[in-house]
Design brief:
279 residues, 72% helix, mainly alpha, MetI-like fold, 0% strand
Length: 279
Amino acid sequence: MIQNKIKNGFIIAGLILLSVLYCYPIVLILINSFKIETAISTSTAFQLPTLETFAGFANYVQAIIANCFLTSLFYSLIITLTSVAAILLFTSMCAWFITRVASKWNKLLYYLFAFSMVVPFQMVMFTLSSTADALNLNNPFNIWIIYLGFGAGLAVFMFCGFMRSIPLEIEEASMMDGCTPLQTFFQIVFPILKPTMVSVGILEAMWIWNDYLLPTLVLDIKVYKTIPMLIQYFRGSYGRVEMGAMMASIILSILPIVLVYLIGQKHIIKGVTAGAVKG
């Protein structure tokens, strides 16, 4: 009994230390976002702000006003919302069809979706830009089609795993009551998928919101900049990097996705406990 307590104590201490190591860079960025420019680029970058180095909210004001942060925020929101909505809708319907219609083609389709998760992005990135230009997908309002393709593998894999635990009798009863397949999906299956919807939505939103490489390859940098692209090209006059405003932009870009995760976290826990007793 004492040995188990000691073992658990070491595990907890290790996890706490690991959490501190993960959170330290974010805390360091937060501290420096309230400092003047000269205090960030010197040895005082690892110290708390003082009366001489404290800049207040000047860096945040500069990040929002002087560098078109709100425009980039709008583009990131449009891309994330449309992409996540498309992934949740189309992949859930696809997974329902795969799990409910038994055929060799559906098994092959499932394995293709699973295989797409291990295909390196570098294999398709060279032809992606020209294909997006040809199909007019090189703007924030159509790029969701590309994200749907890249995000479908994980989403279909998770939805299929959850749908196999749903009793088939529920859907058969709705069919006997006169529901069409679409009515059965949207009125019976879709509400049951809420826990997995939240889990998949959070995972996909975190990936799309923080993605830098795909928008850089597809979008016109001179016209459209998402938040990761804006931070990368944070430059002042003569190519000087405005560290204070950059730190403030990083904090502002982190806040929305952190709020989404905190709001959806309880739904993930409910989904895990609810899914454990299904079937």
